[in-house]
Amino acid sequence: MNEDKRMTETLPKLALIVPVFNEEQAIAPFVNKIADVLVGFSNKATIEICFVNDGSTDKTEQIIDEISQSTLNIKTINLSRNFGKEAALSAGLDYTDADAVIPIDVDLQDPPELIPEMFNLWMNGAQIVNARRITRDQDTWLKRTSAGAFYKIFNILADHPIPRNVGDFRLLDREVVEVVRQLGERSRFNKALFSWVGFETAELTHERPARADGESAWSYWKLWKLALDGIFSSSTTPLRVWSYIGVLMGVMSFTYSAYILIKTLAFGGDVPGYASTIILILTFGGFNLFALGIIGEYVGRIYTEVRQRPLYVLRQGRLRGKNDMHLNE
Ligand code: UDP
Ligand code: MG
After folding, report:
1. Which residues, given as ranges, of the chain have pLDDT below 50?
2. Which residue from 328, 314, 279, 257 is spatially nearest to 127, judged by alpha carbons?
3. What is the per-residue pLDDT across 85-117, written as a single tens digit (0 to 9) for each?
4. Whose CA is nearest to atom 24 of ligand 1?
5. What is residue 212's predicted lDDT score, i.e. its pLDDT?
6. What is the ipTM of this complex?
7. Which of 16, 77, 105, 146 to mutate to test the pocket of ligand 1 (most atoms within 8 A of CB)?
8. Partners of 129 in the beta sheet?
9. 47: Cβ–Cβ under 8 A, 6 or more apart, which residues?
10. Are 29 and 106 in contact (CB under 8 A)?
């Protein structure tokens, strides 16, 4: 049988995609930890660690080079400058040829212990395996509440909800990666893209530990910008809501103008010039909002068009997974 041959000939390739930005202290502990966790894994899969060096200015690159002399399968992609984690992650997804990938942070906040279980769920047929944090005790109060508020607002506004407290740490099947690569938009909020594509999704839960070394490179300002990116690139609601507000305000303005007009004509004005002034203001205000709303509708549509997302995504059946499992049984 075809599958039988594939199973015996090659092991599936699993790539860990690790964006790194000035992480010289974190690289060695990360690689050691991965080696520890995945000891004995080599008969199940070929593991590759793919570092995406996001324009680090410290010794990150040298250290990766040194470590890659050792036995582990390490690959590096260097970006020309710091483009931010989302771009670095996209680069990693673009340049991988693995059967499944797991984006993972280098600071060990995404526990590598989950990798074997993610892998098993994948072998059982899931094409996406999410790792959801059940507690955020390690985060500050401000970060917890702001993150909570973000997920709430995002899920109200966006066309496709994202699962709460699932970061970039998840397993993606090759088929999913290929779909994600095809999405045409430039400003990328990977979490939303991963959930937009669909596919059979499994979930694991874990507690997120504190950062192993150094400090988070995400200031609140950067997080705020990321949140705005996420919301505005996943939803046209903030734009289109003005059509409704415009119509509503327009109707109210016209009604009130009519009332003032009739009242002034029937009973005379209290203050000379008041009726004409207020009617002009309300009429133009109403027209303005109404026109803005119409423009908003068109801009929203243009935005949806330029993203060039596919109209639909096919699920083409897996190269690996369910079938292989049956073979093992
Ligand atoms: N990172 C990156 N480019 C950046 C900022 C961060 O590649 O501009 C990497 C960083 O090296 C780490 C991961 O993204 O591997 C997560 O960063 P961090 O731990 O600072 O974020 P947090 O855990 O606070 O979300
Ligand atoms: Mg971190």
Report:
1. 1-6, 8, 320-329
2. 314
3. 889 999 999 999 999 999 999 988 888 988 998
4. 216
5. 63
6. 0.92
7. 105
8. 171, 202
9. 14, 15, 16, 34, 38, 41, 72, 73
10. no
